[in-house]
Amino acid sequence: MARGSEIADNTRESITLPTPEDSRPLFDSHCLAPAGVATLSQCEYGDRNSGTAVVLFGDSHAEHWFPAIESIANDKHWRLLTLLKSSCPAARVQV
Predict the structure, then answer these.
(1) Residue 58 region by backbone torsions, left for phi larger than 0, else alpha for psi between -120 and 50, else beta
(2) Whole-angstrom Cα distance, residue 40 to residue 4?
(3) Residue 82 pLDDT
(4) Domain ranges in the chain?
(5) How far apart are CA 32 and CA 82, in angstroms?
(6) Which residues contact 46 (CB under 8 A, 6 or more apart)?
(7) Distance between CA atoms of 14 and 58, rounded to whole angstroms?
(8) pTM here?
(9) In the 8-state DSSP scheme, what is residue 77?
(10) What is the pLDDT of residues 14-58, one digit of tens each?
(11) Which among 85, 36, 92 is positioned nearest to 60, based on CA atoms?
(12) Which of 1, 30, 32, 77 could make an S-S bridge to 84, C-beta 3.0–4.6 Å?
């Protein structure tokens, strides 16, 4: 399957696969802290007045989930906060 081509899924809708030329809205908006920087930027999306908040936390791998999570947050009128840093995966901690 060619990247960037449209494919049909089971719901008869089409989806477009990402390509390397696609924009990176979190990176372009400085919402993804680069490696070597000690501070994080918290960015807000979705319904900023919502009583329900969800957080997208992680590294550039988490950034890839942003379009899907932003779409869900917009549909459900959730506030979406991002806390992302390149090359910095979340630590495994036992609770």
Answers:
(1) left
(2) 31
(3) 95
(4) 31-87
(5) 8
(6) 70, 73, 74, 77, 78, 79, 80
(7) 29
(8) 0.70
(9) T
(10) 667 667 777 788 888 888 888 888 888 899 999 999 999 999 999
(11) 85
(12) 32
